[in-house]
Amino acid sequence: MGTQEPAAPGPRADGTAPGGHPAPARPPRAGTAPPGPAAYTPTDRTVPSRSPGRASYDREVVHAILDEGYVCHLGFVRDGAPVVLPTLYARVGERLYVHGSTGSRPLLMTGRADPGLPVCLTVTHVDALVLARSGFHHSVNYRSVMVHGTAHEVTDPEERNVALDALVDHAVPGRSADCRPADRRELAATAVIRLDLDEVSAKLRTGGVNDEPEDYGLPHWAGLLPLRKGYGTPVPDPRLAPGTPVPDYLAALVPSDVN
């Protein structure tokens, strides 16, 4: 909340999340980036005006933040007013695919816009609450990605199938091979937006409290409150066929101390 916090270092090399707690165990994504520069090129829109030292353009950092999330927020302008929609997404190499229905606003607009729909897409993880001695210096440790670009509806059948499988596997890697593919009616009701990872930046805050020197003697508790996220025990559908086991790819996500 304050404006004088220290710049954040990059993700930790020991595999912990920036809040100081173990990062959620999640298998790597199937989509890999093609060979290219190690960093995205900063632009006027991707250089933050506040705390620019926390920005990162490292491709691996950006991909890791995107791959860990489930929901993105897609922003665009409709009839002169801003609209932000939470929705599912997946990364395949240097492209993001966003799920929607054929009747959703952004899908309708990408279909009629030429040459597409200008959008801004964000993904954010909150790793810890930073509790300072003063209200002004309370903050959060976070990792976020912002993508600017022009979204296009995916119309090529082969690319569409790749995108739909990626959206399922983004939630649980390996799931697309263990479920019924969409039928013709379902495909007719489903649409996918493509957004290239070109104008991209990450922003991170890690570390502890940044109080004023004269406040360190105050009798108020200060420090980090890490936030944890993870998987619970799978709950079977009541209509599951008798004897259907929990698949290995799902069991692998659940920590042994949860069962």
How would you portray this structure in words?
- The relative contact order is 0.21.
- Helices cover about 15% and strands about 30% of the residues.
- The protein is globular and about 65 Å long.
- The protein is α+β, with helices and mostly antiparallel strands.
- The protein has helices at about 60-70, 105-110, 155-170, 185-190, 250, and strands at about 55, 70-80, 80-90, 95-100, 115-130, 140-155, 190-195, 200-205, 225.
- A six-stranded antiparallel barrel has the order 2-3-4-7-6-5.
- The longest helix is centred in the middle third of the chain and has 15 residues, at about 155-170.
List the helices and strands and how they pair.
Blueprint: E1 55-56, H1 59-68, E2 71-78, E3 81-92, E4 95-101, H2 105-112, E5 117-131, E6 139-153, H3 157-171, H4 184-189, E7 190-196, E8 199-205, E9 223-226, H5 248-251
Antiparallel strand pairs: 1-8, 2-3, 2-5, 3-4, 4-7, 5-6, 5-9, 6-7, 6-8
Q: How much strand content do the residues show?
A: 25-35%
Largest beta-sheet details: 6 strands, antiparallel, barrel
Helix content range of the residues, please? 10-25%
Q: For the largest beta sheet, what order do the strands appear in spatially?
A: 2-3-4-7-6-5
Average predicted confidence as pLDDT: 84
Succession of helices and strands? EHEEEHEEHHEEEH
First-to-last CA distance: 39 Å
| Radius of gyration, in angstroms, nearest whole number | 21 Å
* DSSP helical segment count: 5
Poorly predicted regions are 1-25, 30-35
Q: How many strand units?
A: 9
* General shape: globular
Given helix and strand content, the structural type is: alpha+beta
Quaternary state reads: single chain
